[in-house]
Structure formats: structure tokens, C-alpha cells
Amino acid sequence: MSIEDDLLKQGIWPVCGLDEAGRGPLAGPVVAAAVVLPPGDSLRSIVKDSKKLSPKKRQDIFERIKRHPGVEIGVGAVGPDIIDKLNILDATFLAMKRAVDALQIDVEYALVDGNMVPRLDCKSIAVVKGDSTEPSISAASIVAKVIRDGYMLAMDRLYPGYDFASHKGYPTPTHFRAIRTLGACPLHRKTFKGVCL
What are the start-end ranges of the H helices in 10-134? Predict the structure, then answer.
């Protein structure tokens, strides 16, 4: 039984899953999503950890999550300037808080993927590998990943030469070569190793 199932059995609802995409890249924002799934809904059986889905399958499930009756979605993002000013952990927590604040309903609990929780206006529980065990966190991981990837695809057109469309800002040999050749662009996190040479 998942933690969320246990909370629901106790009559605790709404419960949101909270996850992020983009902690590790050298460029772009960190994006967090908070998702509330209706209790007992069929959608719970199809969501999975976004990292275990192909881009097409992830996009298909994202579209179903968006259109599904009774689903609530909140998204928060923090850009590279604030990431550099704070640090990636605090920036991630800020994005998570923004995501929960963006929900149209007040939640009683947030289930947070990982081993630490941000300061929120609701109770929260850290769930290690929660994107594999908690359906609402799985849904949040999909939403955050698809939104961030879509943003980086758009940025590929704005900043040609960095190949953001393929690596989405993550540290790859291609990305490091582009930084050495072109220098950093406004999307880059200047405090990250390998960006400022």
C-alpha cells in the first residue's frame, strides 16, 4: 500500500504529489509540479516514473493528466539567475513551494519525492523513490519533465548552437564543447562546474 493510499484510508485528502525536473543540468530552469489525483481514479494505474517512459509515452500520459476530470496541477519554476543566487537545493524547494501555491485547491499533505521536504503551508512527507511508488508523485514527475523539456526545445531555437533540443541542458560532451566554443548564454547556470571556464 502506498503512503497516499494510507492517508486516503484515514480520510486525509486532498494529497498532492510533488516532484521536480532539472536539478542536474548546466542550463535552464528547475521546474516543479504538484499534482492531485482523484481518489480511486483509473489514472493512478497508468502513471509511472517519468524517467522510465519514452518521450512519446511521457507526452501521451501528460496530455491525459491535463485533460482528466478532477486532476489538479500546479507548476513552479526557478530560473538560472536565482539558482546561481541561492543554490540548486534551495532553488528546487522554491520551485516546489511555487508549484503547491499554484494549485487551485488547498492540500492537506504533500508527498515529496526524495529524502528532504521544502517548507510548505501544508504537512509534507519525504518519499525516497516516490516517483516509483506514489501515483501522484509519478504524475508530478511526468508533468515537470514534459514542461521543462518543452521549454528547452523552445530555447534551442532561441539559442542555436548549444543543442538544447537533444540534451535539454544536461552536461554532455556536446554541451561542454558548445560552451567552450560559444561561451555561456543567459540560460546557463554560471555557478555550475563546467559553465564558467
Answer: 55-67, 80-85, 88-101, 130-133
